[in-house]
Amino acid sequence: MSQDLFQAPDYYNLDDLLTEEHLLVRDAAREWVKREVSPIIENAAQKAEFPKQIINGLAEIGAFGPYIPEQYGGAGLDQMSYGLIMQEIERGDSGVRSTASVQSSLVMYPIYKYGSEEQRKKYLPKLASGEFMGCFGLTEPDYGSNPGGMVTNIKDKGDYFLLNGAKMWISNAPFADIAVVWAKNEEGRIKGLIVERGMEGFTTPETHNKWSLRASATGELIFDNVKIPKENILPNKDGLGAPLGCLDSARYGIAWGAIGAAMDCYDTALRYAKERVQFDKPIAGYQLQQKKLAEMVTEITKAQLLTWRLGALRNEEKATSAQISMAKRNNVDMALKIAREARQVLGAMGITGEYSIMRHMMNLESVITYEGTHDIHLLITGFDITGIPAFK
Ligand SMILES: Cc1cc2nc3c(=O)[nH]c(=O)nc-3n(C[C@H](O)[C@H](O)[C@H](O)COP(=O)(O)OP(=O)(O)OC[C@H]3O[C@@H](n4cnc5c(N)ncnc54)[C@H](O)[C@@H]3O)c2cc1C
Question: Which residues form the Acyl-CoA dehydrogenase/oxidase C-terminal domain (predicted)?
Answer without folding.
Answer: 238-380
